[in-house]
Amino acid sequence: MRTLEELTRPNVWRLKPYSSARDEYNGAAASVFLDANENPYNMPHNRYPDPMQRELKKELSKIKKVRPEHIFLGNGSDEAIDLVFRAFCEPRIDNVVAIDPTYGMYQVCAEVNDVEYRKVLLDENFRFSADKLLAAADEHTKLIFLCSPNNPTGNDLLRSEIERIIREFDGLVILDEAYNDFSEAPSFLEELDKYPNLIVLQTFSKAWGCAAIRLGMAFASQEIISIFSKIKYPYNVNQLTQKQAIEMLHRYYEIERWVKTLKEERGNLEEEFAKLPCTVKMFPSDANFFLVRVTDAVKIYNYLVGEGIIVRNRNSVSLCGNCLRVTVGTRNENERLIEALRKYKV
Ligand code: PMP
């Protein structure tokens, strides 16, 4: 691996971060706070939240078994995706490599940050080749993006290939595990201490059922996390989000139940889809959604909209011609979908 200094943009490496009032005084003992120009009348959100989300990280640390210094929290994992570009990629000079198809925000953030985005096509079974990804990288490649289970294809990437990328690439590897809770594959969080160039992304938006609160997680070496903390907005995770997330962490066992049910429902839905006349091919899923090739994705998408049911049309995505991406819902929602598709005339 190149050194972190070589991988970080020089302006970011040199940056002296903004120091907020609550960074400078973060003890609990005081009772008169006249340091942050807040309104003293409490309705009850008059005070700035903890800029480093210490209580939340402490609780999260117990569940994820990762020390708080290795955790960055942001406004969705989308914030962490944007931060990796801003921290490590020099616009118009550096580039990144990613599998294709995958989650669209990696490319959008690359374009916003004026960083070349190199796509390496998966094979027809949506597997990737470490050799091909490494061959697409050069001395200006700072990041490689992997997503497992991948969106929109739904499959886990092969662990041995992921490991090869982490071991053989001399830049940083972003492994997006947004859907890992639904997979049988162990998370790479357990490997964090072994790989100083690995950044694992997870989110509260999927298994945790908290898409509305916007809370994403990045796990990496303490040095990488310090760089994120240096360039993030001072109060990037609001108080309501921190409070709600702590509450959800205390209800961990309920989330495990949801995940179990959703995996069972995924199995039922896949079984029913396989019998539908409009289904051409099912792709195996390790996530809370699956990809299915149908006779005519545009027509079926529009038909379902007419029935008040919205799925995702992925027809124009690479390798996903005539494919729909279907999120697993409740038993009742899934039955409504199947019923509507049974009535559809191919
Ligand atoms: N990564 C992947 C693979 C996703 O599919 C999504 C959301 N669709 C995200 C990240 C973004 O998650 P968040 O809500 O945490 O920004």
From TrEMBL:
The keyword Amino-acid biosynthesis belongs to this UniProt entry's keyword annotation: yes
InterPro entries to which the protein is assigned, alphabetical: Aminotrans_II_pyridoxalP_BS (IPR001917), Aminotransferase_I/II_large (IPR004839), HisP_aminotrans (IPR005861), PyrdxlP-dep_Trfase (IPR015424), PyrdxlP-dep_Trfase_major (IPR015421), PyrdxlP-dep_Trfase_small (IPR015422)
EC number(s) reported in the record: 2.6.1.9
Leading EC class: transferase
Domain Aminotransferase class I/classII large: 44-341
Reaction equations catalysed: L-histidinol phosphate + 2-oxoglutarate = 3-(imidazol-4-yl)-2-oxopropyl phosphate + L-glutamate
Classification via Gene3D superfamilies: Aspartate Aminotransferase, domain 1 (3.90.1150.10), Type I PLP-dependent aspartate aminotransferase-like (Major domain) (3.40.640.10)
Pathway: Amino-acid biosynthesis; L-histidine biosynthesis; L-histidine from 5-phospho-alpha-D-ribose 1-diphosphate: step 7/9; Lipid metabolism
Keyword Phosphoprotein set for record: no
Keyword terms, alphabetized: Amino-acid biosynthesis, Aminotransferase, Histidine biosynthesis, Pyridoxal phosphate, Transferase
Modified-residue entries (N6-(pyridoxal phosphate)lysine), positions: K206
Necessary cofactors: pyridoxal 5'-phosphate
SUPFAM superfamilies for the chain: PLP-dependent transferases (SSF53383)
Assembly description: Homodimer.
Family under the similarity heading: Belongs to the class-II pyridoxal-phosphate-dependent aminotransferase family. Histidinol-phosphate aminotransferase subfamily.
Protein name: Histidinol-phosphate aminotransferase
Species per Swiss-Prot/TrEMBL record: Bacteroides clarus YIT 12056
Upper classification of the organism: Bacteria, Pseudomonadati, Bacteroidota, Bacteroidia, Bacteroidales
